[in-house]
């Protein structure tokens, strides 16, 4: 079992029994979605911006416009916090106090560098797309020089991270167990609907397997 | 039409035609979910933490343990950034470059104060719960003194905010329109499953209407 290092920055203090620093768990939570929230400091303000990402081992890739303030901002400070949360359920207790949620969340604290090597940059773009829809890179027109040059790619090396998971039923006070209040869990998940093909599609073009598989795996 | 003020902090520069500062739009996006990402500055690091919230006019309430680092941190700095994102679809273009997502997102920049007035505090707890499941406050045991005192409630007054919305189909280069690549949108949504009643429920207790309505509205 391989763990991320623990410091005051990433140590989970509240609800610490739900915390883990195990790399495989952190990676699995990161791989189960493709949207993260980036936190960065701008003129003493914390700003949070959602963005897509891909992961390759301990590197997370994000991309954006050359002039994107968030992207420029994290390059300037050299560091970033990424937050990912899967909401898995509402935990509705008998008591207001014990209401909770089932979730899997990760906080990543990382170092930031611009990806300038053309090979790594193209691989990073492939990584981000395939992280969203596995294998879809093979079904699209690749970036031409103008598009490639207009895209800023940033590599975030995971310096440390923590995960927090709640995956259980209601926990109520013993004294409430025989009360008349209902308690239970409402499962929550994110699902994909039927793909809506572009109306202007050339004739005879079918939905690629990558998309069909994505939808089948997210019903 | 009533707008939030626009400054360098909240002005959307990239993709500005998708931006709005209209209060009704911002409020609607805030009211369509109950989990936000809180950004705050801790020892020069931006940290992002997911948490539940409720909204009452231009105030957002959050709650947590008295010792919660995020809660203590934002009280110390006096300000906070809240980010909310609904992912509505994957926009899969013919070209890698024009891939995008449909989404509704809001960034709130607010001032922070601890809610100390007991009446406001109890109303804030009701607001947070009813924001998650409308009307559910009437179906739970209310906090007793010990629980009430152990809960820290923070009011975030919305100083300014911005929303960004993408809700359209694929936009590709004209030169790609007759290519052999597929393009389309995969709708994404968050859904609720069938409520799972606690096994230890006292006999004869039925699922409250608030929960049934929530599930019916989130299928």
UniProtKB/TrEMBL annotation, chains A, B:
The entry's keywords: Oxidoreductase
The EC number(s) this enzyme carries: 1.-.-.-
Designated name of the protein: Pyridoxamine 5'-phosphate oxidase family protein
InterPro entries per the UniProt record, alphabetical: Pyridox_Oxase-rel, Split_barrel_FMN-bd
GO molecular function: oxidoreductase activity
SUPFAM superfamilies, alphabetized: FMN-binding split barrel
Class of this enzyme: oxidoreductase
């Amino acid at each position: 079992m391989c763990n991320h290092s623990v410091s005051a920055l990433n140590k989970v203090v509240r609800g610490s029994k739900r915390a883990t620093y195990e790399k495989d768990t952190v990676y699995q939570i990161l791989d189960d979605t493709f949207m993260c929230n980036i936190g960065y400091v701008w003129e003493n303000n914390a700003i949070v911006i959602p963005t897509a990402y891909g992961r390759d081992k301990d590197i997370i890739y994000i991309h954006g416009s050359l002039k994107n303030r968030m992207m420029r901002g994290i390059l300037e400070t050299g560091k970033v916090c990424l937050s990912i949360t899967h909401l898995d359920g509402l935990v509705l207790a008998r008591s207001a106090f014990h209401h909770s949620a089932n979730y899997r969340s990760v906080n990543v604290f990382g170092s930031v560098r611009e990806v300038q090597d053309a090979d790594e940059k193209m691989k990073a773009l492939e990584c981000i797309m395939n992280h969203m829809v596995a294998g879809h890179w093979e079904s699209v027109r690749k970036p031409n020089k103008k598009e490639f040059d207009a895209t800023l790619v940033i590599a975030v090396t995971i310096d440390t991270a923590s995960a927090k998971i709640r995956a259980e039923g209601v926990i109520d006070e013993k004294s409430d167990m025989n009360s008349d209040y209902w308690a239970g869990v409402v499962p929550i998940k994110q699902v994909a609907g039927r793909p809506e093909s572009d109306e202007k599609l050339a004739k005879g073009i079918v939905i690629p397997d990558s998309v069909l598989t994505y939808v089948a795996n997210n019903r």
